[in-house]
Amino acid sequence: MGCVAEEKQASRLIVAIDGPAGVGKSTVARLLASRLGYLYLDTGALYRAMAWAVIESGRDPADAEAVATLLPTLSLQMQFHHGAATVLVNGKDVSSDLRTPAVSVAASVVSAVPAVRAWLLPIQRQIGQGGAVVAEGRDMGTNVFPAADVKFFLEADPTVRAQRRHWELVAAGHSRALEETTADLAGRDTRDRSRSIAPLVPAEDARFIDTSALSVAEVVDQMMAVIAARL
């Protein structure tokens, strides 16, 4: 494993992982980054932080003009310590507030605002510019890192995705009906895939992986096999 790590560090690849909610992107990306010794860039956390800020300001996430007026007042940072990321909004650590259902829904709405995507783009690119990064989101391979060395697009059966997200929320202490989670995911899919700026679509050169019946380890093993050919 040491030899692989040395080769990998010399290559400093950018690995882009895209896909809809509930396919296991975050868990897979985190483990893959750990296996490679790379930085894990959770771009969804940046959009969630933006959504948190919008909610805190009392603005309507669907009001693009109102959301845009908030941007000049914001400072958004992502700090990394031993592989773990902390998200700061105007110096405040909001990491523990980003996985609530309200923030999730607002993040999907806010992410469709062109001004928000334009504002966050250089922040994401700056984090990944040195390579040796696993970047996970919805437009990594198509918009943020179009020249990424390796690109993956994860998919899964909608029922499986809803169950996964439901269990994730329950584990985090958010009690809600599975039907509500299913409806939220369906709405998010529609917004993500139909937005005019950087919609959720696979990059032409992305490798597809259906995670419906695969464990996290199995998905990562498939990815490692592809990445090994580039090291």
Your description of this structure?
The chain has one domain (2-225): Rossmann fold (3-Layer(aba) Sandwich). The protein has ten helices and eight strands. It has helices at 2-11, 25-36, 43-57, 64-70, 101-110, 114-128, 140-144, 158-171, 178-194, 216-228, and strands at 14-18, 39-42, 76-81, 84-89, 92-93, 133-137, 150-155, 207-210. The longest helix is centred in the last third of the chain and has 17 residues, at 178-194. The relative contact order is 0.21. Mean pLDDT is 89; it is low at 1-10.
Task: Kindly list the characteristics that best describe this protein.
231 residues; alpha/beta; Rossmann fold; five-stranded parallel beta sheet; three-stranded antiparallel beta sheet; 10 helices; 51% helix; globular
